[in-house]
Amino acid sequence: MRRVRRPWSRCRSWTSSSGCAGQWMTLPDPEATRAVLIGTANYAPDSGFESFPEIARSLSDFAEFLRAETGIPEQHIDVVLDPSDGPTIAARITAAARDATGLLLVYYVGHGAVVDNQLHLTHTASRADEADVTALGYAIIRARIKAGARGAVVVILDCCHSGKAFGRDVLAADGEILRAATDIDGAFVLTATDEKTKFALAKGDGGRTAFTGMMLDILRTGVPTTDRYLTMSLLYRELRDRLPAASMPKPKALERGTAGRVALAVNPGWTGHPDPPSLPRVTATPYTAQVRDLTPADGLLDREPELAELAEFCWGDEPYVWWQAGPWAGKTAIMTWFALHPPPNVRVVSFFVTSRLAAQDDHNAFTDAVVEQLSALLPDEAAAVARVNTNGDALRRHLLDIAAQRAANTGGRIVLLVDGLDEDRGHPSIASLLPKNPGPGLRVIVAGRPNPGLPLDVPGNHPLHHCRRREVDRSRAAFDVIQAASLELLGILERSDVDQEILGLITAAHGLTGTELEDLTGLPPFRIARILSGPTGRTFRAQTSRFATDQIILLAHETLQRESENALGRALMDGYRHRLHDWAARYRDQGWPAETPTYLLTRYFSMLRGRGDIARMTDLALDTARHDRMLVLTGGDGIARTEIATVSGLWLAHPDPDLLTVCELAMRRRHLTQRGRDIPMWLPAGFALLGELARAQSLADGIPLRRRRVQARIAVISVQFGATDRRANRTLVDSLRGPGDRTLDDGELCSIACALVDAGDVESAEELAHEITTPWERVRILAQLVSVWWPEGRRSAVETAMTEINRHVLLVKAADRRDEILGYAVGAFADIGDVERAMSLADALLTFEDLIAARCRIARAMATRGESESARGWVHSILATAAKATAADPIGRSQVLGRIAADLVAAGFDDELREQVDDLVAQLAGCTPRAAVAVLEGLVACLVELGDAERAITLSRKFASGTEQLDLLTEALPALETTDRAAARQLAAEIEIESYRTPPDAYRRGFALHTVVRALVEAGDLPRAHAVVDRIDDMGCQFLVFTYLGTRAAESDTRAADFLDRALGTVHALLDQVETWDEQATDAFARTVLGTDWLGREHAETSPTPLAELVRSLIARGAIDRATGLAERLAPLYSIWFESADSLDRGLGELAAVFVESGRIELAARLIPTISGTLRRLTVMQLLVDRLDGDAAAPIVKPMLDDLEDEVLAGRIAEQPLHRVRLAQLSAALGDADRVARLMDGLTDVGPGAQRVVSALATARARAGAIDEAGAIAGTISDRGERIRAYGQVVAAQIRAGRETAALHTATRVRETGERIRLTAQVIPALAAKLGPAGGYTVLIEATHLLGTVERTDHRDRATAALVDAALAIGEVEHALELADGVESDLHPILLSRIVAELVRALADVPTTGQAAARARIRRILAQVWSVGRWYSALDTVARFDPELLIAIADEAVRFEAGGR
């Protein structure tokens, strides 16, 4: 029998993507390349050869270029400076030729001599008068290269070829050159002179020889041409043009074969269009090792025709083929071999369904394996992979589409190979998930047994139903193997009980390691090894485990697995399984200790799934202690989340799902998802610095909060930026902006651009800067660019940037951004040497810290320009001033030093900074714990700049704890990495582990329990609700629940008054913290007291703030003073508010509205004038008008408008145009067209403000009943958002007026399809009410058909949500469910919650005979809600549907969420 070789050449003529064989131009394989660079710079004084330092510089610079730009590893570049003799040169070239399996590059720079028309290369012992015996003949070198080289050869000779020696600036000796002296077959030889020139110039620009200097300039700057690579031919042509033009010798090149197409580097001057993204040539993933374990150990025998047929299929027109065979036919052997040895230009993404292997036989395993392999093929899609936590199917489809498209664009193929369809155990089936319409870049190969047939969930139009079946004949080798294996199996069964026990346990477990067998049986390892390594070579085989230290031993084939099960019988097999269950129970009872076998943590679950043991599977998925141990073992929660998803899916498919269990599973899933919240934001970048990119990306992706997650991702890609590979840099940047994600804001773009500047890729930074429009971020990036442009001499770019910076400095008015812009501008002016302007701007800064930082930045610029003494005087003065001003304020001093540390170190004032640090460290012992942490923040920043990582770490461990300590230790990682990489890696791992051990987030836990309280109140179980209240320890959530209970009629007057008192006390306590500039308290106040989602996310758009509800209840109870006292504390918060002022605006606007609605207009009139800043007052008044009817708000707002109009028109208020526009907008909202005209008269260039005014006017007219006039006004609006808003008001007014047909017509005037659908959805209930359900349903169907034309997913989901509400309003629940199931975002569970709430409301109208079916349906939808959404979703519905279930959920929530895990 013959071993199979890859017969690809018989299948297809493999060419490049251009279709032209042999026309390729590419870079050499760095690992296969060897380079030997030789330079002789120093000769004996009496040698007759002059020494030149330019030779040494040329040698080192060319070596550095090869290291930095070509990717050739340093160990593959042999640099020989001043060789002592000829044999040394010959030996080094011979060794390089021997080791090179790809390109061999030989470079020589030094004196050349000619003896008897033969070129000789010199060394340090060469003499001009004895060159024939002291120099090395080039013919020897040529012979060595010819004898050893196996690939392309490039020889570069920077030496004289002929001519007489005259003058000091030549590298020449007497003689003439023989043309063929450089001839080597298959080589490209480039020389510094041609045959007519007798010398090469030794001295060129940049301290290098003239020839090498010019060559390096071309390699680094490129050639403006459409040639993508700098091939040797292109390099020679450019040298031939440039050198003579610079009065330098003309070079010469000789080419043999196609060596001229060899490229040394990418052409930086390339002017062509970028190629479509391509796929990597080779990708190895952990799953590859698993496939390799399935491959025949002795190779594939006698299967050349089958492999050739598979290769032909890859390039044929058939999208699908199904290979079928019975057991032991060798089908899997063919498929594994093909997966590991695909044809050229084919990338195989495979999955082998293997029911006897743990977690390898369902759609979850299929998706995980395919996503893993596609992620390796598409590294730039890391962000898309990161964003998906639950919808792996969508991610798999997304990645497969991209890979197939890239393959098609580059002349390749993606082959999706799935073997073992008959062993699929999951639901949905893997077959149903295979692509229905593979594009030109994708082919699908499936393999399996003929029976069973396709699963029922495979649609009738799927290609699997009608694709070609290919029967596989059993090979002779396979027949021999099965016979031998069956005999071996019988032999084991007939041997001792111990042999039978080992076989039974391996069969029951579907594979165990030797260590696990030892633990289970108590047998010594040598006995187990003897049994497994005896005459059973074909019965068992070893499987590599990703987590176990030793290999997994399992039966070699599924047929043997079944034969073993049948032979052992049910009773014995049940006994072995019970031993496994008891084994698991033993470790569970111990709390899953560190020595827990990996089988129980990673493979036991799969065995249970194969048995359908949902009870035990559920127990494992709910076991948080086991999850914690799995985290330590695997480094993540992926397996635990998969187990939870699997069990949830099983319960979801159950005819009567256990809702309490499904809800508990959702609790565990949420807990695992939130583990990453305390990961320090910069820790992923620390791992990236250590070279652990996969871990870095995984960590960054696990951070729940989007802002922190994006910043972490930015830091990770910043570590990867390179100075020259612009395309790679742009790919990294684009990876942050995947489909469906929010657009990066200007601050994030600026952070990326600044990182690009730091990395040396200024051009990419410039491109990104064009996307930034926010003034302070524009100034920030421009200042960074100026610091690079100025030393490069790019005066025009600097002048343009400085003009813009000046403009922003002059125009900035907002106090919170003014100092930020001035600070950046100071740095820019200092960098260009305009110290006077920089100082004037610095002096205008308002805060002491900003002033010190600006002056230190100026000192740094001075030191950089060489003005060290002046800079030193500045620094001493700055530090003295800072020390005096902060003598009694160590926190303030720390903050100042942290701000200026980088500038001090960059300017060379390390000692001065270290002295300040020492003084500050001495004060730490006298600080309170909280103050010590605040001091450490600046101290650690200083120590990191000084490179003193050990001290930073020691202080952090001593004075900080918890997440604050982890953040400080993370900040020290970069400095530690530069001095002790191993220690840095250990510290990073420690930080990661501790991050996962931090206590649960109090707010998230409290908000969930607050939702439980609301549901219990809905169910009427007040005692239990009150008991849950006592378990909430987050102050903001306490306020929410106190306010809710105090404002609900379910409470008695006494009890309600008590809760209102507690709510009021809590909000005042929060305010006390906010007023001390506590950032965390401000955040808590904004998201709870001023939040709008406290009654559920589905009500966030319409809910009043809890603060407004509290004040309303206080007024209703006559507690006017307490209500006004609370309101009066809010207005002054603007000056210390850390969060967006929008939340504070909304809170005050709602309070004013509550006062008006409660009949206390005077309270509103008293509140608004206390708000500082005209614009802020206008904003609050606008919110008041929007909240109330214009007529209701007019008594408060109009008098204030009169006064403000007089002041604005008289010019007594700054920023007059902006104030006029805002006044006009407010007047328009009140319908006061005359005032609008007065305010807008003469105003020009007011941007979108004018559009907002017109929109407000349209809204006011629509509310006043002037619908046609409102519609006409809306039609004049050019701004997209304002036009949609105005038409929305017109549609609402038409519906109120009973003009549904006109409302539908108005909706069609909105050009954006998604918004048009949303407006149409508003009309549908009114149409159904007037015309009957059929009238509304017709429009609903028409609008549904439009959904497919909405391109953006988020817009389509919002439109779908509107249609779901419309469908529910007209009783079309089935249609609503169908719509909701098409949503893949976080809206999905929200829509399902709305649907199930409607079903519960309608339950009372269902006849008795239909109650059971209706309730079963509700239970299934609730299970679906919790399977994809938060566990506390729809609890208010549960309260009405099944109060007992709610009580059980509440009890479990208290136990789990309140810390009883």
UniProtKB/TrEMBL annotation:
Domain of life per record: Bacteria
Alphabetized NCBIfam families for the sequence: caspase_w_EACC1 (NF047832)
Protein name per its UniProtKB record: Caspase family protein
